[in-house]
Design a protein that fits this description.
elongated, single chain, 507 residues, alpha/beta
C-alpha cells in the first residue's frame, strides 16, 4: 500500500527538500495552501487536500482539513476493524503528518490589530497534530524541521514515535497558551482562574544553585528580558546563579538610572546589592561602588547603566568578578576584558526588553503570583513627619537609598551619602538586626548619611541606633502602631524623618 504524508507548514524551512525525498521513495504527498504551491513550484508532486475530501476550501481558508477523509485517515488504528471501516468509506490511511502552525505569536509581536491576530489562530493544524500524536504508533508526527532527517533515516522506533508525539502535544499546548495569554490580556484579566505558563528552554547550565542540582534557563511565553536576551561578548557561559544575580543587578541599575543623573554602578552578591554608586564616569562609579564594601564585592556581579569604555574596564583590573553587564561595551574595552579577564562574563544587556507585569515565586506545588513591584518614586507622596526638614542633599540621598533598599531582601536597611551606599543590611529576620548590620558595615562613614527602610519601624530602636551612628535623616513607609513614639524619638534626637506610605517587602 502506498504510504501517504500530509504536509502543511507555516515554517517552510527544509520542507521542499523533505517532500522531494519522500516522493522519491514512493510516498504520496497531500498538502494545502502555500505549502502545496511551494511543493508544486519546486516540481514535487503533491495532491491538494480538497481533491482527497472532495470538498473545496471554504470561508477564506478557515475550513480545509476538518473532514472525515482526513481525520479518519489519521485516527484509524492499523487493525482489521478500523481498516475495514476506512475501506467502506473510501478513506485512505495517512502515515505521516508534517505540520506547524499559523504564525500567531509573530503576528501579535509585530503589533497587529486584534482582528488580524484572531485570523492567525490555527484550527485545522492543531486538530491534525493532536490526531496524529494520539495515533503515534501508526502515524509519524513532525512539528520541527530538525526532525525531518529522523523520518528519512529508516524505521522510526516506538520510543522516538512517542517522543515526537510528546513534542507535538507540547507544540499545541504552547500555541494554545500563547492564545489564552493574549486574549486574557485583551480582556484585562490579570489573575484568571487558570494561569497557563508556557516556557521554552533558552539555555542549559552546568548546574543550578549548587553542583548537585541540575538546572536550565527558560523563557516565559511572549516575554523578553535584559539578561535573558543579553549578548555574551566574552567569558564563560552564564550559570544559574550568574543569571539570577545579573537580573537583580540590572533591575536596580535600570531603576536608578531613571532617577539619577550620571553613571550608576550596582554590585550584587547572592541577590542583594552590596555596593551601589552614582558618578560621572563608569570608572568612578565602579570605584565608589567597590569601595562601599570591598569584602562583599569579591566574586560579585556588576551592572553599569552606561557603556563601558576602556578606562572603566581597566578600573576593574584588581577585583575578581563573575559578571559585568552594561548597555554596551566599546571595542577597546571588550578586547581588553577578553584578554585580561578571560573568565569574566561580559554581557551587553537587551536594554529594550522589560520584565512582564507578573512576578511568580515558586512554592511547593505551585506559584505565588503578584503584580511586579514597579511603583516609581514619582508615584509616592513623601511626607515629612518631624520638625526638622531634610536638606536638599538629604532628599537626594533618601531617594537614592530608597531605590537601593527596595531591591534588597527583607528585612533591609540602607545607609547612603553623596550618591553611594555606605552600609547595607539585608535578609535579616529582624529590622533592628538589619540596621545593626548596615551601621556596622558603614562604620565612621555612617556619620552624615541617611537611612532608608523598605518597611515600617515597629519600635524606636532603629531611630536611636541610627542617631548614635551619626545618621541625619530617615525614610520609611510609616504605618506602625507606634509611629508616634518613633516620630517623637526622631524629634528628640534632631533627625528628619519622611514617610512614603509605600512598603516594599522583598522575599
Amino acid at each position: 500500500m502506498t504510504r501517504r504524508a500530509l504536509i502543511s507548514v507555516s515554517d517552510k524551512a527544509g520542507v521542499v527538500e523533505f517532500g522531494r525525498e519522500l516522493a522519491a521513495r514512493g510516498w504520496e504527498l497531500l498538502s494545502t495552501g502555500g505549502t502545496l504551491a511551494a511543493l508544486r513550484a519546486a516540481g514535487v508532486p503533491a495532491t491538494a487536500v480538497s481533491d482527497v475530501t472532495g470538498f473545496p476550501e471554504i470561508l477564506d481558508g478557515r475550513v480545509k482539513t476538518l473532514h472525515p477523509a482526513i481525520h479518519g485517515g489519521l485516527l484509524a488504528r492499523r487493525e482489521p476493524g478500523h481498516l475495514a471501516e476506512l475501506e467502506t468509506h473510501g478513506i485512505g490511511p495517512i502515515d505521516l503528518v508534517c505540520v506547524n502552525l499559523y504564525p500567531f505569536r509573530e503576528t501579535v509581536a509585530r503589533g497587529a490589530a486584534f482582528e488580524e491576530a484572531v485570523e492567525q489562530i490555527d484550527i485545522g493544524g492543531p486538530a491534525m497534530l493532536r490526531a496524529a500524536a494520539k495515533n503515534h504508533a501508526a502515524v509519524l508526527v513532525l512539528v520541527d524541521p530538525a526532525d525531518y532527517p529522523l523520518a528519512l533515516a529508516g524505521e522510526v522506533s516506538p520510543q522516538d514515535r512517542r517522543r515526537l508525539a510528546a513534542k507535538a502535544f507540547r507544540h499545541t499546548a504552547d500555541y494554545d497558551a500563547a492564545i489564552a495569554g493574549y486574549l486574557t490580556g485583551e480582556e484585562g484579566g490579570q489573575f484568571p482562574d487558570r494561569l497557563t505558563l508556557s516556557l521554552s528552554r533558552v539555555a542549559e547550565v552546568r548546574y543550578g544553585e549548587n553542583p548537585h542540582q541540575p538546572g536550565a534557563i527558560y523563557r516565559r511565553e511572549g516575554e523578553r528580558g535584559p539578561v535573558l536576551d543579553a549578548r555574551l561578548l566574552s567569558g564563560k557561559p552564564m550559570s544559574f546563579n550568574n543569571s539570577a544575580d545579573a537580573d537583580a543587578a540590572w533591575a536596580l541599575a535600570a531603576e536608578l538610572s531613571g532617577q539619577e543623573e550620571g553613571t550608576v554602578c550596582v554590585a550584587v552578591k547572592h541577590g542583594n546589592p552590596c555596593g551601589v554608586a552614582v558618578a560621572a564616569t563608569v570608572a568612578e562609579a565602579w570605584e565608589r561602588a567597590r569601595d562601599a564594601d570591598t569584602l562583599s564585592v569579591f566574586g560579585g556581579v556588576v551592572a553599569v547603566s552606561r557603556p563601558v569604555d576602556l578606562a572603566g574596564a581597566q578600573a576593574m583590573r584588581g577585583t575578581f568578578l563573575e559578571v559585568l553587564i552594561a548597555p554596551d561595551v566599546t571595542p577597546e574595552a571588550a578586547a581588553w576584558l577578553a584578554a585580561k579577564k578571560p573568565d569574566l562574563r561580559v554581557l551587553v544587556a537587551a536594554s529594550d526588553a522589560a520584565p512582564g507585569p507578573l512576578d511568580l515565586r515558586p512554592i511547593a506545588g505551585g506559584f505565588a503570583v503578584q503584580q511586579r513591584d514597579s511603583r516609581p518614586w514619582d508615584d509616592l507622596c513623601p511626607e515629612v513627619v518631624t520638625t526638622r526638614q531634610p536638606s536638599e542633599q538629604e532628599w537626594q540621598d533618601l531617594r537614592f537609598a530608597w531605590a537601593v533598599v527596595k531591591h534588597a531582601r527583607s528585612n533591609a536597611v540602607a545607609l547612603a551619602r553623596g550618591g553611594v551606599t555606605v552600609g547595607l543590611g539585608a535578609g535579616a529576620v529582624s529590622r533592628i538586626w538589619a540596621a545593626e548590620r548596615a551601621v556596622a558595615n558603614a562604620g565612621e562613614r555612617a556619620r552624615g548619611s541617611v537611612l532608608a527602610s523598605e518597611a515600617f519601624f515597629p519600635f524606636d530602636d532603629v531611630v536611636r541606633l541610627a542617631a548614635g551612628a551619626g545618621v541625619t535623616a530617615i525614610l520609611q513607609p510609616g504605618g506602625a502602631k507606634r509611629d508616634p513614639e518613633v516620630i517623637a524619638a526622631a524629634n528628640e534626637l534632631g533627625l528628619s524623618m519622611v514617610f512614603t506610605g509605600s512598603r516594599h517587602f522583598r522575599h
